[in-house]
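Recall that a protein's primary structure is simply its ordered list of amino acids. Everything else, from secondary elements to tertiary packing, is in principle encoded there. The following example makes that idea concrete.
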Amino acid sequence: MLTFFKTLTNGSAPPQGYCYAGNPPDRETIGLIRAGAAQGRHKPHPRTPLSVQRFVILDTETTGFDVDSDEVISVGAVVIEGGRLRHDQCFDRLVNPFRPIPPEVTGLTGITPEMVASQPGIFPVLKDFFPYLGNSVIIGHSISFDLAFLNHKLQAYCRTQLVNPVLDTWAISRALYPELPSHSLDHLLEHHGIEPHGRHTALGDALLTAQLFLSFLIILKRRRIDSLRALNRLLNSQLRQHVHLRILRL
């Protein structure tokens, strides 16, 4: 389980050796972020059917792979609720990294320095994201990467972090298709016949991962795995060596 850091009465200084190039969050923003993050402590009941649970599929784009020196440049999320994709509930924000975007990242994501120059930094974006997220279950593909970047900032400046239950479609794929040679997002999209429209954009990858998860739900239903508890048991039994599920103490 994720650890929830106790809130402080004042803003906090970042750890030694780490410095965010943008403006740190003010007291009001820190308070709103902490309040939003606290919603994630209200876990869904383990018997909640997968068909009614609200899931938020999350993806980020970053300037690189190092949480200590790279920054988020885009946050995208979509909602699956009632077993269907809610196109009317998309979250799509560019983020000013306050540092250069490498040309290869621009080539991959299409995000240029000019596009983010007038955008807010990560903290105003997270302030808006938490009410959108609520106490939903977070889903992503290799989601630990995205959570690492977001939690690094949240811990350093707000003394909090995302504590929502988390499901990784990589882990679900490992449980459903142990014979597959690869569980990369690209391979799984091809395996399910999903066209990779919008690939390597935060919202695009969130939508693609959502489509993949909907395909998983069909397979899980056929196997009579129809609740959060049942899915948790499946993953715990088949992925003991891969801790990619943080959901509930059952």
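Residues 202-222 form the longest helix (21 residues). The chain is about 40% helix and 15% strand.
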